Amino acid sequence: MTTWTKSHVLLSTQRNRSLPLAQGITLLSYLIILNHLRKEHSSTFREAEMLRSISFHPSGDFILVGTQHPTLRLYDINTFQCFVSCNPQDQHTDAICSVNYNPSANMYVTGSKDGCIKLWDGVSNRCITTFEKAHDGAEVCSAIFSKNSKYILSSGKDSVAKLWEISTGRTLVRYTGAGLSGRQVHRTQAVFNHTEDYVLLPDERTISLCCWDSRTAERRNLLSLGHNNIVRCIVHSPTNPGFMTCSDDFRARFWYRRSTTD
After folding, report:
1. Which residue in 18, 46, 217, 242 has the fewest CB atoms around it within 10 Å?
2. Model pTM score
């Protein structure tokens, strides 16, 4: 589930297990667009593949969709048209785990089970650069841009988060120590805090939050997240010291830093 920040629009995903399916056809997935101010349904897209990641274009007119299939989709939410790169070689070779636009929408980034991170042109829908074996061949769980779009923060199932410089394609900083009890099994995300001074990554074995200084990779104290199962998702506020976590214990928690008073 995601929102478009400039409107009262909510995008949800759903798999319909009740529909009769033809032989050889997988369960259908749906993109459901809602106006949560008016509490009404706007439109629905149907996908034959299981949905794994979605990202709104900043204009609100397009949606990037990553599915179990390696081909990246771009949907026009007004016409229901689907666009893909004209060159099949641009695509991943396994399921897409993460899709995200940069703030100006002139680029977007994808991460995949094939272990690659791909940087795409936001206008031509073509792949610009591929970071091969970004996490030593492990599945790439997440990839997001910094606010200035000069860097990409990624995480993988090697239990490592990395900061990449886009202009050179090299790793600037490695954030390690989250997987001391072994490689992670499930997907989660590495995110910046609102000032981009820190990098946050949930640790699935201890169900705690790992935190590093984004520039020096100095690790801070662990924060217990209070969940009873692995944390699947973490989203930090872009403007305030607060974040949300979602877990397989069927709970979401909101965390914030109280302001100090004299």
Report:
1. 18
2. 0.83
